[in-house]
């Protein structure tokens, strides 16, 4: 005779739905699972408290922090949950402090990925970002910040693996590895990454945004970056950084400390 725990079974139903569909609202979960919304609220409250599920700031949708074998489709690495959990309180405080929105990006092998954003919390309504959108690691501000913090051999390996790729490689910008190293040297000298001048984002239309970014580490490993974004017509990266780079650096330091403490637990 098989004994089943009803609450556990329902919790697993929620995790399976999120693992399959990646991001769902309460109404979506109600439709997918058939569970009452009151039950779902209780389950989600527990799952969020235990960090098995997170509710993204950017769009209010629920996402799973755990990978289940029955989940279908492309999934984010298991490390995305801890990164978001430990980073977003600090990133939200940054936006409350300076008002400009910030995106949290994660290094995803050969690309950068947006994993959360404070755009909804900012009084400045910018082009809406899409969570889990992948970005060119060479052209994006976050990618440049991360690459500048990596050993040269690591950068060369990424360039080699994307050598013929006109979407994700340096070929998109008509640059050689040697030419790109000059951009990395400039990044190290000024202390933050910026978008390449010819990089207009990954949207169909030009998003007309500038961004600056600094890397986030877990111990010695570069795991992602925090960006600040604003309309190109408002300010140059140099002028914007003169005012806002220090709060951005302080936020990245706080996130790095939080992630490093997690590693020691």
Automatic annotation (TrEMBL):
**SMART domains hit by this protein:** HTH_ICLR
Query: Which GO terms fall under biological process for this protein?
Result: negative regulation of DNA-templated transcription
Alphabetic keyword roster = DNA-binding, Transcription, Transcription regulation
Q: Does the keyword Ligase apply?
A: no
Which PROSITE patterns does the record match to this protein? HTH_ICLR (PS51077), ICLR_ED (PS51078)
**Residues of the HTH iclR-type domain:** 5-66
State the Pfam families in the record. HTH_IclR, IclR_C
Keyword Transmembrane present in the record's keywords: the answer is no
GO MF annotation: an example? DNA-binding transcription factor activity
Q: Describe the location of the IclR-ED domain by residue ranges.
A: 66-261
PANTHER family according to UniProt: DNA-BINDING TRANSCRIPTIONAL ACTIVATOR MHPR, HELIX-TURN-HELIX TRANSCRIPTIONAL REGULATOR, ICLR FAMILY
> What name does UniProt use for this protein?
Transcriptional regulator, IclR family
Originating organism:
Tranquillimonas alkanivorans
Q: What is the lineage of its organism?
A: Bacteria, Pseudomonadati, Pseudomonadota, Alphaproteobacteria, Rhodobacterales
């Amino acid at each position: 005779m098989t004994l089943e725990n009803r609450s556990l079974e329902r919790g697993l139903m929620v995790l399976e739905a999120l693992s399959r569909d990646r991001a769902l609202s309460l109404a979506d979960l109600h439709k997918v699972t058939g569970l009452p919304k009151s039950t779902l609220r209780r389950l989600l409250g527990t799952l969020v408290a235990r960090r098995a599920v997170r509710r993204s700031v950017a769009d209010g949708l629920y996402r799973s922090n755990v990978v289940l074998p029955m989940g279908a489709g492309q999934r984010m690495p298991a490390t995305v949950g801890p990164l978001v959990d430990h980073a977003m309180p600090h990133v939200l405080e940054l936006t409350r402090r300076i008002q400009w929105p910030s995106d949290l990006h994660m290094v995803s092998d050969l690309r950068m990925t947006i994993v959360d954003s404070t755009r909804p919390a900012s009084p400045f309504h910018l082009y809406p970002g899409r969570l889990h959108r992948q970005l060119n690691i060479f052209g994006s501000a976050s990618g440049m910040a991360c690459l500048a913090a990596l050993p040269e051999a690591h950068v060369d390996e990424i360039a080699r693996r994307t050598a013929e790729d006109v979407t994700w490689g340096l070929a998109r910008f008509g640059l050689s590895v040697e030419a790109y190293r000059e951009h990395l040297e400039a990044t190290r000298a000024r202390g933050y990454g910026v978008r390449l001048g010819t990089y207009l984002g990954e949207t169909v239309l030009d998003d007309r945004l500038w961004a600056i970014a600094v890397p986030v580490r877990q111990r010695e490993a570069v795991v992602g970056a925090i960006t600040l974004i604003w309309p190109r017509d408002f300010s140059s990266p140099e002028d914007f950084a003169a005012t806002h780079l220090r709060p951005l650096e302080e936020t990245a330091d706080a996130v790095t400390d939080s992630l490093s403490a997690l590693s020691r637990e």
